[in-house]
Amino acid sequence: MSDQEKELKLLRDQIDSIDRQIHGLLNDRARCAQHVAEVKEKYQGSKDAVFYRPEREAQVLRRVMERNEGPLADHEVARLFREVMSVCLALEKPMHVAFLGPEGNFTQQAASKHFGHSAHCIPFNSGDEVFREVESGGAHYGVVPIENSSEGVVSHTLDLFKRFNLTICGEVELRIHHHVLRADDLGLDQITRIYLPQQTLSQCRSWLDSHFLSAERILVNSNAEAARMAIKQGAGAVAIASELVADLYQLNVVARNIDDQSDNSTRYLIIGDQEVGESGQDKTSILVTVRDKSGALYELLEHFHKHKISLTGIETRPANSENSHSAFYIDFEGHAANKHIQKVLQELQSETVELKLLGSYPVAVL
Ligand SMILES: O=C(O)C(=O)C[C@]1(C(=O)O)C=C[C@@H](O)C=C1
């Protein structure tokens, strides 16, 4: 045995022994999670038991990142523990998660990022269908896009909260990376047709203008459909889509990260029908309807200012009413169980036409 082989053998023996310990500990953890499930069923009843606990998961992940001393990066260890909790939760109860499809899109990536790969994620054609599936109990949770850093708010998603009685149980932030994909191996040569959905065009327009001004742009309904069209059309056709779509359709990535904003990201909401406990770092979302009058928004925001509560987002939506009313979606820091948040909610309740608490949930960790 050479010196190198001897040294490698020693290290690999160490790795084998560590793997045995990790393996044993993983199964110990899984058994603990099974007992947690039994306790939940015993006290909440097997039909009503709530297995998924976003606040607890956020605390576990935050703690993992805080205590991490490397050499593994904080987000890498958190990603590993994300998957560990995902398999443990699947042992307690396999989770069915509806997402705004089609398969292979960024919302699916957001769903996997949030729930890990042991959750069973099912695509639906519209936000309405996702909400309906969760409301009817067909899926435990749903994932829908709410805001993109370059395109702004997805107002259709916001409006669904008026029609459905569901709560927000969490949020996910996903960095969006678009790539140029093609079936042949011609790199960036001879590109004549580009398949992409409208929102991808909005996010990559400058890059496409400067690299392929003369190529025809054909709008399709999704990045996955763009990939299918690029394959079908063959020579000269490319799709603009994600790495996941490239893997799904076995396409070559010929140019990476073509987004005009290098920090292009989308925020997604997790919808469900449970109240989420405090995690220590939470957000609350409300929908308020007020009578139209000058200074109405100012008066509304005054309450937050008075109690030193930071807003993280506000959107105006037309209220569906014959009266002259306006509706505002407001996100702010803090949990509804918190006393000073309760104060603000009480004040708002007495001064608004309607106040709907959409939910308090942990600030995105990963
Ligand atoms: O603490 C719980 O309630 C658990 O069910 C355990 C556990 C975990 O694996 O740590 C699993 C699923 C929950 O979403 C949160 C945490």
From TrEMBL:
Residues 2-96 form the Chorismate mutase domain. Transmembrane segments: none annotated. It is found in: Cytoplasm. Keywords: Amino-acid biosynthesis, Aromatic amino acid biosynthesis, Coiled coil, Cytoplasm, Isomerase, Lyase, Multifunctional enzyme, Phenylalanine biosynthesis. Pathway: Amino-acid biosynthesis; L-phenylalanine biosynthesis; phenylpyruvate from prephenate: step 1/1; Metabolic intermediate biosynthesis; prephenate biosynthesis; prephenate from chorismate: step 1/1. GO terms for cellular component: cytoplasm. The keyword Lyase applies. SMART domains: CM_2. It comes from the Bacteria. It catalyses: chorismate = prephenate; prephenate + H(+) = 3-phenylpyruvate + CO2 + H2O. One of its GO terms (biological process) is L-phenylalanine biosynthetic process. GO terms for molecular function: chorismate mutase activity; prephenate dehydratase activity. The keyword Coiled coil applies. Residues 1-28 form a coiled coil. Its EC number is 4.2.1.51, 5.4.99.5. The record marks T266 as: Essential for prephenate dehydratase activity. InterPro entries: ACT-like_dom_sf, ACT_dom, Chor_mutase/pphenate_deHydtase, Chorismate_II_sf, CM_dom_sf, CM_II_prokaryot, G/b/e-P-prot_chorismate_mutase, Preph_deHydtase. Residues 285-362 form the ACT domain. Its main location: cytoplasm. Residues 96-273 form the Prephenate dehydratase domain. Catalyzes the Claisen rearrangement of chorismate to prephenate and the decarboxylation/dehydration of prephenate to phenylpyruvate. This is Bifunctional chorismate mutase/prephenate dehydratase. It comes from Amphritea opalescens.
